[in-house]
Q: What sequence folds into this?
């Protein structure tokens, strides 16, 4: 209830602080009998890891995951899977000057007012570092969903600051530090980021995340609709300020005759819905877009107050991502996977013996991403 | 877990179908000792009610609420408050032709695939009619929050189809059928809606909802952040496809030096955050915007399939809102109130004896709505 | 969270007060496609109903249930099933003298201290009348479990005050007002109760409840063990002060070589476990026993205090059960059914594709009730 | 939902297996600002630790706890407190002969049928070793409750096998390996246990646990009554088969005129209720008793089946407690503390601004333990 657990049936309980001894999570509710090893999880952790290019924070964390429980002879047993990641590169000194002030746009002020005290070292609990356990848990969900339904998750950047990123070739996403789906704009992106870093400023970003091979029927109306839980998961990622499903804000200027996706025996003729109808998955691709605000920790001086309420000026010289959006792609994938996983189990609980009256409409004509 | 309960500590359990005997909800967890009567609830129900202008569905429902429990001598006792609304104007005949087909963009298909059967009368459980109990519960939350913190909720339309609606005068919102914050565009809006209805089509909409007089410290990171729960509540409203907090998608092209709201002893100098920092309320106004898709039930013919998977054509001749967004304003207010209420109790549970180290920054300079 | 919801996946939300307009519940999570009607529910309500013999309260309530939602053409749709029971025989006058004092052993004092006020009419929310919606929900669970697994629930009295009741013939339970499994002690029981009523006093009771035809594998260790949830459900029944599973307190003087139920290919050789091993159902009969305290509302004068803390004397002249245990049998059955139902869905969620390695051990030799 | 989390607002998520790398838990929802260190927790862990006398298992575990998160400068921050205990003395070889058979009375069979596989090393997840993280979490709750309300928890054995243990001097409990509240029976107990161990058998036990200095008003009727949650917590302890509150099964033969605790301005005149009225704490001492079955792992040969369903004989030669009840006292205390803690926060959430109308009745005359 204090908010550190994600999901209802596939439950991930997250712990740790940026500069404490360790971070990690406990996954409760994983189906038994699935082969699992650290390697399955490490892959996604490495995609999120800091220090992998000059465009992200230079903090050097191996983010090596240890599985503490829940396996026997390489298979999940159905008992909790505890994952531990030791923090190794905490330079608390970096933050010495921030102990008594509040960075504009940062959680410093609100944490302090809520709890009456705060761990100021590296943002404490509010650090984006705490997305690592989420990514680890997401890797477990991804593996099960791939085996069970053939579901696959992929995300990519669609905009960095003013720079729109063209979707040209999905295969390129893994081959550049920007999760860009092309090879042609990488130089442009590098130049943009270098200038930004030099200026001591930060920028926003936008990205898409998609799930393909979706089962039909996931989602629990009225209040736990599939898209509602996706929106919660996405808005809960550090720095996210907007979420769209399918047509998103574009639907405002659409007509009903244009928005509603027509059905044919061969499949849906478009995917403005983004894979969700009435809060329940339709079997079409899930299509989600999010907006990520610029990093709050910048070198440029900003007005603020100190712990006594007196005016002061804040500058942040620690190691920070100038565009937090860049590393957000594997995080958004992980959260989407966690939502799908949780709802797959919820659906099975109530409707496990329902035979869907019709085979899911064929995927051939689903009007897949990149829609938004 | 089947999704009909909203909230963790102020819990609203919703029941009913569009054309069943009754709809309603049970509110569990309301603090004891608050004066409450049907009149407190009826006011908001009347704002959401169908049949109040020619621009919304002509279904004629009084939406008269009956309180079945939870009160003694006019005060809440702390026990569940059950609210009942009888359905009185169900013309099931309206939907006879839809029993065997699926309206494009509607929940017909996904409900049927999930549960193996569906109640086709008026959309059954997927009907926007089921927002009435939510609005009723929201009215209870609004009353408590107003008394406890002075918090007030207000929503208004900012766009209908291609037509942007200027924010000129908040006092006008209550005086036109469009929840428009001006008197100058009403004629234009009426003409737009008349043309749309005549064409047998529908359109999307966009609206803002704001909470003023917010307490500091609400929200439960990591996963139940305040903005995350707001996003869930908003995306869960029928037909919503996008949610923004504060700057929303506008943050993508902002720099960090521009987005982060500076603090002064007199208050925040702007409100790009929309009232939430690190998933915790900052005391600034909550500022939320949502996108609402065009109604799926339209008179224009659309391609679909029938229950045997064969191609067919669908037209809907029942009584429908050509722009569901219009009646969504009190719904969005209610859901925002429910999120604030639930988090107020959650915060009190864990931090009930925390003295906020600093008085909340004064409201004078909060950079209130209409921001987005 | 305020405690009016039972279950995690098959969720029953209960509302109402003894002397309010109505009582009822909302069942969320019922699997779709099951035939259901008021008659299925009314049967168990009638078994619990007051006024059916001179040995129970003379309040005359028809307890007629109305299904408000969740059905279409006689089948459950998977959406919430709301059940409504109007109160018809409230004589608030009966309690006039109790408004300002607290009956010893009753919830009057604790409710008032918790909430700062209380509904004194007939015990308000603390009345055993609120078990009626639970019984109604239990009837829905029983029907599904009978169809799905062939599970059957039966309870009977084993003791009333000092009078032990012999288990002779299960078929007799339905044919006497005491839920006694024999015909030979009925006269003795009637005489006992008549004397008690005449004395203005009340007595305790003990009963057994059993589930036969249990699936293997229900229960969620570590904390939501099957027996733990059964104990919670039973202790939560009004007036229950003790719960036993299988050998119960008898295990204290057993040796390990005696208690542990040996397994053979033909089945377990005894059932001291009461059907639960390590918090998980073993497929043996569930065997539960509970102790029910004497009714607190008696005619004999008792010392108490009034609302100002001053000493006073309390006597209760309303209509009360001299032995609340008598009507508790269908209540205990209903709660046991709700626990089994909830855990059946929980098990299916996580382990829905597990093939039990061995067929459940045959029932022939299960050492069934009446064990405790 | 898979059952590894205890509590709603003070949530403890438990992980680990008897012979895996580590066990531990994550506590979410602890109020901020409380001084906490490993020493606060180690004390209770040491009381539960194996290997401390010849009467308990000789497994040698230091049970050294490490706090991984949730503290800053020695104070709780309100974020999750992760506790880690490395397993150091796992001799899997001890269990080699049990891989393919099922010990009568043990969870071997039910785990294997539920999950389709099991971790057989030392009982895996079903081992009583997993109570260590619960005890650790209970120590945190105890500290907060002592500071907030002055609540204190104490448990003691009342019976071992056929041997009743007299309550003579509470101060003796800490000075013998049996948690006996006297010094006069220790020799007798030692002789009893030595004979039992020599015989290769095991025995049951009974113990009492009490909370003194209870706040009034805890508990959430209808379904999350205080006594209901206590019963769940107690029955969920490994090997518990029965739970009593206050008079317990003794109430069956009580009259109402005897059972109902009379109130006076000086306090209650007795405590048959055991501190709970109508599911809500009355401010009297909480009085709970539990029955613990004999250990299933014994040296004596027992009939069973193997994984192929064929008959076999089982004997267990590992290191086991001949009376698991002995080490259960600190476990029962911890669980009672967790229930009180969780309900204290739940009560504060809903009723945080209720002023109890009357000061709690004075404790002088509460009729405290040892009642049952």
A:
């Amino acid at each position: 209830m204090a908010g550190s657990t994600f999901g209802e049936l596939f439950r991930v309980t997250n712990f740790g602080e940026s500069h404490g001894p360790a971070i990690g999570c406990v996954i409760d509710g994983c189906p038994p009998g699935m082969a699992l090893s650290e390697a399955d999880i490490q892959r996604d952790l490495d995609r999120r890891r800091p220090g992998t290019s000059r465009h992200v924070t230079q903090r050097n964390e191996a983010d090596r995951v240890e599985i503490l429980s829940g396996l026997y002879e390489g298979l999940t047993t159905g008992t909790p899977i505890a994952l531990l990641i030791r923090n190794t590169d905490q330079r608390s000194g970096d933050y010495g000057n921030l102990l008594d002030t509040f960075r504009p746009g940062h959680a410093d002020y609100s944490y302090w007012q809520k709890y009456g005290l705060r761990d100021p070292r590296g943002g404490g609990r509010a650090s984006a570092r705490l997305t690592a356990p989420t990514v680890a848990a997401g890797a477990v969900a991804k593996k099960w969903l791939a085996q069970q339904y053939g579901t696959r998750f992929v995300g990519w950047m669609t905009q960095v600051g003013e720079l729109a990123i063209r979707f040209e070739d999905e295969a390129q996403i893994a081959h550049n530090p920007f999760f860009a789906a092309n090879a042609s704009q990488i130089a442009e992106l590098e130049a943009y980021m270098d200038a930004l870093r030099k200026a001591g400023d930060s920028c926003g970003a936008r990205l898409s995340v998609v799930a393909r091979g979706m089962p039909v029927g996931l989602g629990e109306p009225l209040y736990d609709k599939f898209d509602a839980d996706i929106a919660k998961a996405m808005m809960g990622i550090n720095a996210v300020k907007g979420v769209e499903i399918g047509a998103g804000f574009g639907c405002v200027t659409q007509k009903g005759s244009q928005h509603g996706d027509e059905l044919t025996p061969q499949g849906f003729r478009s995917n403005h819905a983004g894979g969700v109808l009435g809060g329940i998955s339709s079997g079409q691709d899930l299509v989600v877009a999010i907006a990520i605000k610029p990093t709050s920790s910048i070198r440029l001086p900003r007005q603020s107050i100190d712990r006594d309420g007196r005016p002061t000026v804040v500058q942040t010289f620690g190691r920070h991502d100038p565009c937090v959006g860049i590393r957000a792609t594997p995080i958004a994938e992980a959260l989407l996977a966690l939502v799908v996983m949780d709802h797959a189990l919820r659906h099975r609980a109530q409707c496990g013996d329902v035979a869907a009256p019709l085979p899911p409409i064929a995927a051939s004509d689903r009007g897949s991403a990149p829609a938004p």
